[in-house]
Amino acid sequence: MKAVYAEKNEIHVGERPEPILKDGEVLVRIQAASVNRRDLYTPNRLAKDAAPLILGSDATGIIEQVSADIENWQVGDEVIINPSLRWFDNTPAPPEDFEILSLPDQGTFAEKIAISAEQIERKPDYLSTEEAATMGIAPLTGYRALFTKGQLQKGQTVFIPGGSSGVATFMIQFAKNIGARVITSSRSEEKREKAKQLGVDLVIDTAEDWNAALQHETVDLVIDSVGAATFNRSLAVLKKGGTLVTFGATTADETTINLRDFFYGQYTLHGTTMGSREEFRACLSFMEAHHIRPIVEQTYAIEHATQAFQQLQESTQFGKIVLTM
Question: What backbone phi and psi angles, to 5 degrees, belong to 45?
């Protein structure tokens, strides 16, 4: 079968063996899958002599085969993949055996995948195939960051630096649909305009002075996924007693903070990543209730996966990038 895989720290598009179905699994013929930054980093996390690994964590498709012990799924069912493996109940942190699909498991950038029936959900009818392909890492991460960790409420103000990312475009819509005020930032004038069209109340230039730009705002919550480049800037605009949630470090993993400023400010800091199946299902229900549609910037055929990765690497997209099989 055709697949996108990592081998010897490089990304390849070519043929891989079809998966073999095991007990408790379903075989899904994948129609589309979305690209995440995780896919850019995974090849360099593998040993040079590691076996080829199919990339990809998100996908939608049609069940082609079910193992004999599965009763609640049938051939022909349209499904989406939950990439948060073996984390079922909403707990403060994931269980010890939690992993994200595609490392070490074979991922979704392929024509087929065999996966535990515990890791699939029914595709929402109102979403297109390309939109449904994005229903994995981004919305789940954003939902947990905003609501489980951030406890965002109607009437509060949330600041989301870097508002053009896949996760950010979900969070913007989530927050607006509960009646929160949303602020975001971008270096690109085009992306700032798109953010306004998505419903953001205030968009600022990432390069400007955030303290000056937000001096008349009361920021209750900041969701920061940029990392070292924005962490202290984010903390500086947060109200006293406010909450900062972080789930990414696209600029750098390490930063320093002034502890005295932090404890005098009575701030709350939460780390998060991904989320549980309970939250994933709540996220799907929330999106369906509010008819929220993912923002898909660009779609590529699987043969052109390297172009999709290049676009993601350059961060020129607003929303998600999707591969079709």
Answer: -90, -5
Amino acid at position 18, single letter: E
Angle value at C-alpha 283, between 282 and 286, nearest 5 degrees: 85
**Cross-strand partners of 244:** 222, 269
pTM beyond 0.85, yes or no: yes
Number of H helices, E strands in the chain: 10, 18
Bond preceding residue 104 cis, omega within 30 of 0: yes
Number of residues in the chain: 325
Token pair listed for 23 = 């007990």
Tokens 């998060």, residue?
272
Per-residue pLDDT reduced to its tens digit, 66-123:
999 999 999 999 999 999 999 999 999 999 999 999 999 999 999 999 999 999 999 9
The tokens for 68 are: 């004999």
Residue 310 DSSP SS3:
helix
C-alpha distance from residue 294 to each of 72, 100, 119, 181 (Å): 28, 21, 21, 20
End-to-end CA distance of the chain: 10
